[in-house]
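input
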Amino acid sequence: MELLTLQHFAGCVGQEFDLSLGESTVPLTLAEATPGTTSILPGMLRAPFSLIFRSGSAIVLPQQIYRLKNASLGALDIFLVPVARDKQGIVYQAVFN
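output
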């Protein structure tokens, strides 16, 4: 399994990711892919980064690992945390250290 980096996601900003909920899916849009604020420390396998996804749904999904599918990246298992709600829907964040 390849270690995911910011470069994998940088070209996918604005693209849709389908979050699997068993028989159904919830569309998320990758809104941001940004480098982390922590410096790379000895022994770290990658530079930290953060992803922000937006959902148009009013339903807040609990924080957990979800299977996401994207046309460019394929299927990925990512731990998502709901971090905000605004008039556009729910905002989820994934942090990679």
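quick obs: The longest helix spans residues 6-10.
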